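Dear colleague,

Following up on Tuesday's group meeting, I ran the structure prediction for the two-component complex that the binding team flagged. I've pasted the input sequences exactly as they went in, so you can double-check that nothing got truncated or mislabelled along the way. The structure tokens for the whole assembly follow below. Feel free to forward this to whoever is handling the docking comparison.

Inputs:
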Amino acid sequence: MDMPAYRLRELRVERAARRVLDITALDLLPGCVTAIVGPNGAGKTTLLRVLAFLLRPTSGSVEFVGRPVAYHEPALSTLRRQVTLVAQTPVLFHRSVRANVAYGLRARRRATDGGVEAALAAVGMTDFAERAAWKLSGGEAQRVALARALAIDPPVYLFDEPTKSVDRQHVPIVESLITQLGAAGKTVIFTTHNFAQAYRLSDMLISLSDGHIAPFPLINLLRGTTEQIDGHSYFLSEPLRIEVPDGTVARTIAIDPDAIIVSCDALHSSARNSFAGRILKAERDERGGLLLTIDCGCNFVARITRHSYDEMALNVGRAVYVTFKSSAIHALDEDTPALR
Amino acid sequence: MSFGDALLSALRLLTAWDPHVVSAVAVSLRVSLLATVLATALGLPIGFFLAVRRFPGRRLLAVGANTLTALPTVVVGLLTYALLSRRGALGILGLLYTQWAMVIGETVLVTPLMAALTMAVVSGADPQIEETALTLGATRLSAAFTVLLEMRSGILAAIATGFGRLVSELGIALMVGGNIADSTRTMTTAIALETSKGEFALGFALGLILLAVALAVNVAVAALAPPR
């Protein structure tokens, strides 16, 4: 197996006496697209800043391609040239679009001709080269920032919410860019709020919550209370009553989308939970699957294969049943490391 | 002499290109420009450093720089005089009552101002500017330069403020320059002298030129500042 692009051990980042990142062990593989998902304030941006060598962790070790990172100049500058980070709301310099895209090439004393045009073309902004960067819309600025990163062609790309401020019609350009970079053997690490996007684009998915890595994807998150009814434990989240393993006490649960069975008829099985619903959305997943969003009073996301989808003649709007075992449920308590 | 008469005489002096007037203007400009350049070269890096680096004693230095912006010109004049007079530490250079003496004093006066203003401008800069430069492969030094370039309207305003303070300064020019005609006489020392002699027209003419110079500098700054 390849040496990890990044190897993080016992990594802690503290800010104003608060621990914002606490990662025991994380390896990020080279040539892979990794998605980091998690709610606001989970530490996604902080993690990217550590990976971009912009932020020195309070403690712990960071290895980049097998070498421990030395947090001093000029070693750090050399290391930073292997990586580029496109921020969530990127800053464009007060210059032309062309000068912005050429910035990284100039910093490396590389020729700028050709590279700038190719990068702008990749994000569909060829005609914007001579425009003033400060007159662009948020979405255009985001795409120029992507072009600025593409122009320098580093081995590692870090994208913080790359499609957040991009207009809807340009989201596919950005998404296919991530896929293309992955196919070209680049290491791509991006954060997103959007689980479907994370599943669709990535080879590896990491869930962050309150600075910790969650041991399972934090998807199908439901909030409610647990109660004992007739000797069984239930999780009540209006309007659903979900049977959970006995003795479970939780205010939040997560259900693994791979463990949810979708059927056209009600199943008579050992699975304790079955709900009728309707398919709201079907999104492609590049790993050969489909992510179905099913409304059963609250939304569930289930992952099924394309083959099953076709064979069952499913479509958006179709009434289906969602079934899962109580063991597919992860209780997220104060005791769960991911939520601590 | 009425205000109107003074204005008329002033315009007459201006259009006649009186050699003493021309000399005072030239000395003022030369000394203030040179001192502004030197103070910028010294104060800008200090201010930038104080704004972006965290080290023990930084706040103390920042407060110090801010306090020194209120330095009275006569105090700087006195110190420079003590330094450059024959018995002073640099007396051997024989600079007292030369334009160089004025440049030294004025540089001392405005360097803290340049540092304090640069510090204020850079502290107000989005920290993402530096980070963006770094993540695009810039070295620390060129990232710092990028930040200054991005904040150029503020930096230019700081330089204009420094120049404005110097070109209108009287204490240092008088104390270490000595107000020697056609040598160290500046617009301000000339105004002071002419006023004390009752020659209001010349004083007034020089005052007008001073204002015109200030106007020209600010027009240039406005032209150099990036559009929004």
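The first strand of chain A starts at residue 6 and ends at 15.

Cheers,
M.
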